[in-house]
Automatic annotation (TrEMBL):
It is an enzyme of class 4 (lyase). Its cofactor is Mg(2+); Mn(2+). InterPro entries: A/G_cyclase, A/G_cyclase_CS, Nucleotide_cyclase. This is adenylate cyclase. Keywords: ATP-binding, cAMP biosynthesis, Lyase, Magnesium, Membrane, Metal-binding, Nucleotide-binding, Transmembrane, Transmembrane helix.
Length: 399
C-alpha cells in the first residue's frame, strides 16, 4: 500500500471525475451547433414561405387591380356611349344635368325606303334589322373620327339617325368661328350620303335612299332619370330639324332659311325649294343641297322626290313622279273619244298597248324609286324606253 501511494502522478491516468466535464462540453458544442443550424434553416424556411406568400398576394392584388380597372374602363366606356363625356364628368359632381345652348346644330337622317325592304315574315324581321344595324354601325364608325369629335349621336328612332353639334361648351369657345361646329355637322351629313352610296354598292341589290333634315338654333340638353340614363335635346330647333327631314327630298339635305344664311356664307350652294308647311310653324322657306346643275342633274346623288310629298318652287303641292309618267299616256276618256270619233283601226289597236305601257311605266318607276328593281338595269333602261314610246304615241295621236 505504501509503494502504491508513493507512485508518481505522471505515470498514473486522469481520474474519471476530471474526464466527464470535457466530454460534456464537446457534446454540448455539437448540440448547440445542430440547434443553431436547425434555427437557421427554420428561419430561412419561414422567410421563404412569407416571401412567397407576399409575392402571391402581390400577384393576386395586381390581378384584382387590373380586373377592377378593366371593369371601370368598361363602365366608363358604356357611360360615355350613353351620355357625352363632358356630361358624365358633370354627373360625377352633381346628380342632375341640364344646359341651354344658344346655337346647337341638329340633323335627322332617315332611310326612307327601309319600310319597303323590311319583311317580318322572313325570320321575324331579324335579317332586315341586321342589315340596318350594319348601316347604323357605319354611321357610328364615321362619327368616331377625330374630325367629328364635336358631334354627338343623340339616338336612333327606327331607321332615323339623330345627331347634334355645339353641345360641348369647351369645344365652342372660338369667338372667331362661333358656327364652326355647324360646318362640321354639315360635312358629316354629306359623308353620311357617301356611306349609304358605298353601302349600296357593296351590298347587292340594295338601293337605300337617305333623306336628311338640318337646322340650328337654341335648344336644351339634359339627362333624364337616375337609372338607365337618357341624354336628349329639346326645343323648336329640334322639332324643325325633324320637319326638315319628314318633308325633305331623298338623296338631298334640306335646311331651314336660318341655316341657309349661315351655310351659304361658308361656300355651300343650295337650291331654293320654296315654302313647306311645317306643323306648328306654318309656311317656311327651305333650301336643298346639293345644288342641281343647269341640266337639272343633281351631282353625286340621284334626285328622287319623296313619295308622300312634292313641293314645287312656288310652294304648291305637286303630283308624284308616278302621276307625271301616267300623264304621258292619254286618259281613258280621251282615248274613248278618239276611238268613237274615227274609224281608224290603227287607233283602236293603240289603246290596249297604251294602257299596258302606262301600267308598265308606273311599275318600273315604283320599282326604281323603292329599290325593288327586278333587274340590274331596270331603273336605267325600262323607264326611258317606255317614256320614249309613250311620247311617240302622243305625237301620233295629236297628228
Amino acid at each position: 500500500l505504501a509503494s502504491s501511494s508513493k507512485r508518481s502522478p505522471c505515470n498514473g491516468s486522469v481520474p474519471n471525475a476530471m474526464q466527464r466535464p470535457a466530454d460534456l462540453i464537446g457534446q454540448e458544442v455539437i448540440l448547440v451547433s445542430f440547434l443553431l443550424l436547425l434555427l437557421v434553416w427554420f428561419l430561412n424556411r419561414e422567410f421563404e414561405v412569407s416571401y412567397r406568400l407576399h409575392y402571391h398576394g402581390d400577384v393576386e392584388a395586381d390581378l384584382h387591380r387590373t380586373k377592377i380597372q378593366s371593369m371601370r374602363d368598361q363602365a366608363d366606356w358604356l357611360l360615355r356611349n350613353i351620355i357625352p363625356y363632358h356630361v358624365a364628368e358633370q354627373l360625377k359632381v352633381s346628380q342632375s344635368y341640364s344646359k341651354n345652348h344658344d346655337s346647337g346644330g341638329v340633323i335627322f337622317a332617315s332611310i326612307v325606303n327601309f319600310s319597303e325592304f323590311y319583311e317580318e315574315n322572313y325570320e321575324g324581321g331579324k335579317e332586315c334589322y341586321r342589315v340596318l344595324n350594319e348601316l347604323i354601325g357605319d354611321f357610328d364608325e364615321l362619327l368616331s373620327k377625330p374630325h367629328y369629335s364635336s358631334i354627338e349621336k343623340i339616338k336612333t328612332i327606327g331607321a332615323t339617325y339623330m345627331a347634334a353639334s355645339g353641345l360641348n361648351p369647351s369645344q365652342c369657345q372660338d369667338s372667331n368661328h362661333p358656327h364652326g361646329h355647324l360646318q362640321t355637322l354639315f360635312e358629316f351629313a354629306k359623308e353620311m350620303m357617301r356611306v349609304v352610296d358605298d353601302f349600296n354598292n357593296n351590298m347587292l341589290w340594295f338601293n337605300f335612299k337617305l333623306r336628311i333634315g338640318f337646322n340650328h338654333g337654341p335648344l336644351t340638353a339634359g339627362v333624364i332619370g337616375t337609372t338607365k340614363l337618357l341624354y336628349d335635346i329639346w326645343g323648336d330647333t329640334v322639332n324643325i330639324a325633324s320637319r326638315m327631314d319628314t318633308t325633305g327630298v331623298e338623296c338631298r339635305i334640306q335646311v331651314s332659311e336660318e341655316s341657309y344664311r349661315i351655310l351659304s356664307k361658308m361656300g355651300y350652294d343650295f337650291d331654293y325649294r320654296g315654302t313647306v308647311n311645317v306643323k306648328g310653324k306654318g309656311q317656311m322657306k327651305t333650301y336643298l343641297y346639293p345644288k342641281c346643275m343647269d341640266n337639272g342633274v343633281v351631282p353625286h346623288h340621284q334626285l328622287s322626290i319623296s313619295p308622300d310629298i312634292r313641293v314645287q318652287v312656288d310652294g304648291s303641292i305637286g303630283r308624284s313622279p308616278t302621276d307625271e309618267i301616267a300623264n304621258l299616256v292619254p286618259s281613258v276618256h280621251s282615248a274613248d273619244k278618239v276611238a268613237h270619233g274615227t274609224d281608224n283601226s290603227e287607233t283602236k289597236d293603240v289603246l290596249p298597248s297604251a294602257k299596258k305601257l302606262q301600267k308598265e311605266a308606273v311599275r318600273a318607276e315604283e320599282r326604281c324609286r323603292f329599290g325593288k328593281a327586278t333587274e340590274k338595269t331596270d331603273c336605267e333602261e325600262a323607264g326611258p324606253e317606255e317614256v320614249n314610246e309613250l311620247t311617240k304615241l302622243n305625237i301620233s295621236k295629236s297628228v
